[in-house]
Every structure is written in C-alpha cells, then in structure tokens.
Write the structure tokens for this entry.
Amino acid sequence: MTAEKLREGLERANRLAALWQARAKELERRMKEQENMEIVQAVRSIAATPEELKDILGRIKNMKEIPLNVSEGDSGKGNLSHEDSIWDSEADEMDKEDVREDEEKLHI
C-alpha cells in the first residue's frame, strides 16, 4: 500500500469521524431537550403549590438513596415492552441507513 493510498484512507476516515461526531452532538442536544420536556411535564402533573413542590424536590435532593418501587422478584431488567423492541429495531435500521448515506456522501 502506497503512502498516497494511506493518506486518502486517513482523510476519508477523518471525514467520516467528523460526520459521526456532528451526528452524536445533535443526538445529545435532542436527548437533553427531550429529557427537559419530560421533566417539565412531570413537574406540571404534580398537584402541588410551588412551595410544596420546592419542599418535595429539596427532600429528594437531600436523600442519600432514592428507594426504587420494584416489586418482589422483579429486577426491572430485561423487561422491554413491545414498543421498546420495535424502537430498537427501527433505530438499528436507521443507523444502517445513516452509514450508507454517509458513505455515499464521502464516495466510499
């Protein structure tokens, strides 16, 4: 393999890395936005005055460990809902499609 081929391969890899890095940053931004929206919805669903809510959140913050509501014999692991497993399949397909699109953009 010649130095020129190696250089081209490195440049192609760097372009792909930049594309994936940009995609990761966008996904992180969207994830944070979604988490914030879910927090706001959860807070709005609580029937409490602002003072009561502040007290509740203060108590949670001061707890050393938040107790989990896990029923006996249920570890909470491995219990994906049908909707979750569909999402995982769709996400895998979307990732494969994104890789193909990225490769086409970079003429790989």
